[in-house]
Every structure is written in C-alpha cells, then in structure tokens.
Design goal:
Two copies of one chain form a homodimer.
Chain A (H helix, E strand, L loop, with lengths): L4 H8 L3 H8 L7 H14 L5 H8 L4 E6 L5 H16 L3 E6 L4 H8 L9 E5 L8 H6 L4 E4 L10 E3 L2 H14 L5 E6 L6 H16 L9 E4 L4 H14 L5 E4 L2 H13 L9 E5 L13 E4 L2 H18 L7 E3 L3 E3 L10 E2 L7
Parallel strand pairs in A: 1-2, 1-3, 3-4, 4-5, 5-11, 6-7, 6-8, 8-9, 9-10
Antiparallel strand pairs in A: 10-12, 12-13
Helix pairs in contact in A: 1-2, 1-3, 5-12, 8-9, 10-11
The first copy, chain A, binds a DNA duplex (16 and 16 nucleotides) through helix 2 and helix 4.
DNA sequence: CTGAAAGCGCTTACAG
DNA sequence: CTGAAAGCGCTTACAG
C-alpha cells in the first residue's frame, strides 16, 4: 500500500541500511549515493512510518502537556509557548486537558496517553510535598511546572512568584498607594503560588514601613473573573477602604476591575490595580492592565529542555529546579503610561 | 525492560493470542480465563505498547487538529471542544498550530505529523474552491472546518454564517436601530465566512425595507481586537453616523467597543453592538456582549464523527457537508437583559 | 475457545 | 561505505 523503506531501496538500487543512513543523516555517505537515495525518496513520495520507528527506537518524538484546560487564557498561552518551543526541537505536543482538582491531577498521572509520549510536562496546582513518591513512581520522564514543594526529588520549573509579587506591590506603593489589597485565590486545595505571592506582597508592605493588615487580604474562591468580581463586590459591601489592588492573577484583576468601575470608581485615579500573568488581553482591557510578566517563553524553553535532559539522562540523573525571571509591565491601570519597568531574576 | 504481552502470557499461563483477546475485549472468552489474564495484567502493571499496536493495525488513535494558533480565544475554545469530543471516543488530539496565512496553511497539509495521525481536522481560513484537488491529493483522511467552497469534494463542517449574521442584524433592527454598521474583517486572502456574514447582514437590512448602504460596511485588517479598534477609530474620525454595530466576530466587537467607550458613547444607549462566536469572555466584558453562538460543541462532534466515518470508510465514500446550528445570545451590549433568544437550524 | 507463526516498517549490531 | 538479518511488541489469519 504505502511506500516503505524497502521500496526506496529497490528503486534507488541501494540496501535498506543505506537508505536508513540517508534518512537519519548519517555523515559518511558518498554524496552521489545520498543524492540517488534522495531522488528515489522524492520520486516515490516516501515518508517514514513513525510507529515503526518508535517501536524500534523506543522514542515517539511526542511529549505530553498536562494542563487543567485549554480555555483558560493562562493555559492556552502556556500551551502555545510549549508547542512553539517543542516544534523548534522537532517534537510534537500531545495536550491532555484534565480538568481542575486534585483527583483529576492524580488520575492524569496514570493517563491513557502515557505510553505514547517520551515524557510529560505537568502543570500542577494541587500536588504537594507529600506527593513526591507518587510522582517518582511514574516511570515516564516528568517535569513539573509550578510551585509545589518537592525539594530536589522531581525536575521542576518555578516562576518568580515572590519577587514578582513584591515588585508589583512596591510599584503600587511607590505611586503613593497606602492601602493595597491582596486579592488572593485559594481553590480548596493548597495552591503554593498563592502563598508565595502573598509573601512577596507582605515583604513589600513591610519594607515600606507599613503594617501588614490581614483585613486587606481577601480570598477569592477561584482564579477566574467570577472570583475576582465576587470578592470585590463583597469588599465594597463590607466598606473596606483601599486605594490599590494587587491581584494574584490577571483574570482576578479584570473581574475586580469591572466591579470597581460599575461602582463608579475610576482606575487608576481612585484605585490602582496590578495583576499577574501578562495575558495577551491585559493589553486591550479598559484601562490596559499593569501586570507581572512571568515570561512564558522562558518557562516553556526551560521545561522542554529539562524534559529532554531527563529523557536522555534517565532516572539516575539528579533532579534540577529552574526558576525563571519576570518583568513588570506597567500600563494604564496603575497610572503608568506604556513604559516598561523590567526587573528580572534567574536562579538555578 | 518494560512488560510485554509475552510476559502476561507467561504469568497467566495462556497464549499471547488469548491475552490479546482479553485486552481487545473479544467477547467469547471464559470469564475465568479473562479474570486470570486480567489478574496477570494487574500484577505486572502491563500497558500495551501503542507504537507496536499502531504499526500492526495501521491506526494510531490520534487525530490531528490544524489551527492557526492556540492563543486566539476562538481557536482555544474550538480545540477544547474537539479534545473533549475526541476523548469521549478514546482518541487523542495532536494540535498543530501553524500560524496564519495561506502559505502556512498549505505547508501544514504536508506537515511532519501527518504519519502520526489517523486523520486530520483542518480549520482553514484561506483555502478556496481552487484548492480542492490539492486537498484530495492528501492521503490522510481529512475534514475541513470553515466555509471554503469545495462543493462536495471534501468532507466539511460549516456553520450558520449567513443565518446567524441575519439573526444578529435583525435583532439590532428590531431594537429600533436604523444605521447598523457591518464590521467586517478580511485578511488579505479570501475569507469565505466574512462574505457569508455580510450576505446575512444584507438580507436582514433589505428584509426590513432599508437600503443597503456600502458606507456602513467597514473592513478591518485583522479579526482581532486591534483590527476592531482601528476600524472604529477611523469610522469615528470620518464622522460616519450609526447607532448599531454587527461585528463579524467577538474580538472585533470588543476592540470596537473599547474605542466607542473611550469616545464617550454609551453602549447600548448610543450604539448597540452584537458580535459573533460567543467567546467565554463576552460574558464578562463591560457591558456583556451580545453574540451569535455557533455551538462549538456541535461543530466538534460533527467534525470528529465525520472524520471517524472517513477513516473507516476510506476515500471511496462520498463527501458530506454538515452545517451546524446557532443561537443568538442577547446580553447587555444590545440592550437585552440576560434572556436568550434561540433560533437554530440544522441542515445536512 | 486457544496456540504457533507471520509480519507491520523500521533501526542496528554484525559482517564484509 | 554497504548488505543480510534480527527483532522492537503487537494483531490476526490459520489451524486445531
């Protein structure tokens, strides 16, 4: 039916081995030989059968990306960055959207696609230190994205949660805000990022010589617009006074912003607001939202390269952790014009 | 190294064939036999090697989804719907984001993942009637999404572009608007959807006894917020008078809405606006955007099932076309409350 | 119901 | 540089 390497061998007049050498870019080949094989490949329209290659080599050239869903802008943008990075290295990405919640995250580790992929990039919100053994029991090479505390047992990529949150809060304080809300989500399970961002917020408050006021820390029940809107509605009802908001992610910020505007408050004049994530849409909101840019491209690159290292190095290799940098994007919502204040860190 | 079907056979005491029968749910098996094989599978932690299965069966259980990118909300939501539908049928989805433009779309047809997937769902913006031969030359089973005119040569799923656009425009006219803009994108290449939506707009205008006014048809140079904002800015500069806008998609609408609001116009009091796509975020914009809901779940289901039919039926099968229905979601931007006016069509 | 055997298309020692 | 041959793990006629 379809053209195989055997057909190419027959047409070109060389052995299967030689054809294979040409396909795989083996260096020591007479140019003439290479040319004739390539002509035959072209003529026949030969394409290697990947299943056969994978069966033989034990590699599929596909990596998995496990995320809660694809419709959340944050994960869509992350997935896009991972796919671009992977494509540049000749890898395809199989996305597995698993829904949110701890149960789904655990189930995904035993997921059906496990045997199709050479390794997995796993974006976890709910796994904690206690799950390290579980993760180590997975025989697929694995890189974890996100701030779960695994202390050196699993490869992971983390972002500058604390430093980014501190920079965002400092920016609000530098603009003269004195009562800055921390709009913080927690989703039932422990979300380590939230704690780290809260720590950064607190550092900035205290470094400015202000008192950390628990009344200004407001929990939302989801990381989405709905959660931000609901929390802000409640704050306004409760009559809490504030002149700045650091939201732990952009969608919380956008939800809160809408409620603030409906209540007649002007942004940034009455309330300045900064988010976290640098979603594409923050550039187009009204007003454009200031935010912490976690550099998704850097995260994606670090994840893919760490995974490749693990795939090649095997389980013996020591686990590494890479923390990516950030920058603060100052836009209208915090009174900035469109200039960009950058402050990046990089740690290994 | 890893556990194979041979190990399961050895441990269970049955032949490889019997183990295979159990794995593939072959019906005529003594329950006791099945049980003992399943125990062995469990005990050994056996998982079938998909590469081997695929090599043998010629199927991979993976379908491709070719889209321009994943960060555009429309495609992210489409991809999510396709993945959910596919997962329900035991299929994995390999997304290939190819960038926009005709060149990229053509290149994707020869893409590197072609031999990894059983078939491809291909969301095209730029392919036209002249490309039918090209599409037919692709030996992978293929379902095209979008309104490219292929008249029965390729399986395709189309949406109710004209009917949806007409319903949106009629809704604006019914609310008393008399000068309704058509905010229409065209991206260099021919985008058939835009023509069809324009036709629906025109039908509604003329059915209402109004004259079709070319001055009210405004082209944007992209389907994104930026395009909607730029077009609206130009319209306002030119002093074109209007009291309603039917935008050909939601992001155009959101971009236009921002510019209208900055100019001091109230929505919907001064200008009522309706979009197309029912993106998740339209529920959260300020004001919430009325829009045509193209029922992405229906599109995804039709696409996956048509592809499966093609994969099983082979190239001989006659090509089919399915047009999915729509509903009109009336929200604040067109003066509605939150009720829902539904009008659906379905054709084969 | 079950077993022994061929073969899917490739890569890779092993010989030359 | 090149060829003949084994084998990756599975499914499936073909026999029993």
């Amino acid at each position: 039916m379809s053209v195989t390497i055997r057909d190419v061998a027959r047409v070109s007049g060389f052995s299967i081995k030689t054809v294979s050498n040409v396909i795989n870019g083996h260096p020591q080949l007479r140019p003439e030989t290479r040319q004739r094989v390539e002509d035959a490949i072209e003529e026949l329209g030969y394409r290697p059968n990947l299943s056969a290659r994978n069966l033989r080599s034990g590699r599929s050239g596909v990596i998995g990306l496990i995320i809660p869903d694809l419709t959340t802008a944050y994960f869509a943008e992350l997935a896009d960055a991972v796919m671009r990075t992977a494509a540049a290295r000749g890898l395809a990405v199989l996305i597995e959207p698993i829904g949110s919640g701890r149960e789904n995250e655990l189930a995904a580790l035993r997921g059906q696609h496990r045997h199709m992929v050479d390794g997995v990039i796993y974006s976890s919100l709910t796994l904690g230190a206690g799950d390290a053994d579980l993760l180590k029991s997975v025989d697929t090479p694995l890189v974890v994205l996100g701030d779960t505390s695994f202390d050196g047992q699993v490869d992971r990529i983390t972002m500058a949660n604390t430093a980014g949150a501190r920079a965002a809060t400092e920016h609000l304080l530098a603009a003269g805000r004195r009562r800055v809300l921390a709009l913080a989500a927690h989703e039932g399970d422990i979300v380590a990022s939230a704690e780290l961002r809260l720590a950064g917020y607190r550092e900035a408050i205290e470094a400015a010589g202000l008192a950390f006021d628990p009344q200004l820390v407001c929990y939302a029940d989801s990381w989405h617009r709905r959660g931000g809107a609901a929390s802000m509605t409640k704050l306004l009802e409760d009559g809490v006074a504030f002149d700045g908001v650091f939201a732990f992610n952009d969608t919380l910020a956008l939800g809160a912003m809408r409620v603030l505007q409906e209540s007649g408050r002007r942004i940034p004049q009455d309330v300045a607001i900064v988010g976290f994530d640098d979603l594409d849409e923050t550039r187009y909101s009204l007003p454009a939202l200031s935010t912490v840019n976690p550099r998704r491209d850097d995260i994606a690159t670090a994840a893919v390269e760490t995974l490749l290292r693990r795939i090649e190095g095997g389980p013996e290799l020591e686990a590494i952790e890479i923390e990516t940098g950030f920058s603060l994007e100052i836009r209208e919502s915090s009174g900035g014009s469109d200039q960009k204040a950058t402050s990046a860190t990089n740690a290994a």
